[in-house]
Amino acid sequence: MATRNETGTRTRTTSGTKKTNRSSNDRSAFSFGDKGTGAAPLLGALAAGAAIGIGANWVRKFVQQASESLAAGGEWDQILALEHKATLAKFDLILATEDDETLKRTALIKTLHYALNKHAHQEEQVVYPALRQANETVDADHLEHEHGYVKTYLYRLENMDKGSPEFLPTVREFRDLIEEHARMEEEQVYPRFKNSLSEEQNAKITSLMNKEGMKMS
Ligand SMILES: [Fe+2]
Ligand SMILES: [Fe+2]
User: Domain of life here (predicted)?
Assistant: First the structure.
């Protein structure tokens, strides 16, 4: 990716005095002062939903998102890191297929597409906007730009002959992109951003992200 050369710039430009831009007095569309508690609101909503006879599909979404949140420790960055790990495992399953297993490849690409869509939706609807609001625009724009290439790889693989000799090399390239993208999020951008926020602000991001994840479950 041509844009990977920007990593050094990003690191330099986003270090330093960010806390002054994100004081606990900040109020915004994220309403950070409004306490969110990760999975807890989802579990409460689940109980409420059951009580009023909410549709089974919504209950399933609540359960799925709450389960993922709890499994990851309930914090937004941990949930995303767990999803990165699960996504890379899906790539490895695809890379283990043979050229004559075209139906299996088609099915695995479908599950990969679903997982990447949900993950990207959570980041694009909550985490990246929160980064921009905290003046981490360079990082947010770079990461969202790479999400565009994620869609491009999915498009290529879905429209490619699954028995083609090009299939696995394309999957490997795609996996490399995802791995590097996830590493940047997990090792550079997210820890720095999380540490600059208060506990309440982080809880709010977790809560908002879980709501968006549920929409895609
Ligand atoms: Fe991302
Ligand atoms: Fe991510």
Answer: Bacteria
What's the CA gap between 154 and 165, in Å, rounded?
17
Residue 30 pLDDT > 60: no
Instruction: State the distance from the centre of ligand 2 to the C-alpha of 181, rounded, in angstroms.
Output: 7
Cα 31 to averaged position of ligand 1 atoms, centre (Å): 23
Inter-helix orientation angle 6-14/137-158, to 10°: 150
How many CB atoms are closer than 10 A to CB 57? 9
How remote is the CA of residue 124 from the centroid of ligand 1, in Å?
8
Which ligand has its closest atom nearest to the C-alpha of 186? 2
Ligand 1 centre from 202 Cα, in Å?
Answer: 18
52 vs 213: CA distance, rounded Å:
22
Binning pLDDT at 50, 70 and 90, where does residue 165 land?
Answer: very high
Domains and CATH numbers, the chain: 36-215 (1.20.120)
Residue 197: name the closest of 25, 12, 6 by CA.
25
Question: Separation of 190 CA from ligand 2 center, angstroms?
Answer: 10
Residue ranges near ligand 2 (ion) with Cβ within 5 Å: 80, 185
Rounded CA gap, 134 and 11, in Å? 15
CB-based contacts of 166: which residues, under 8 Å, 6+ apart? 160
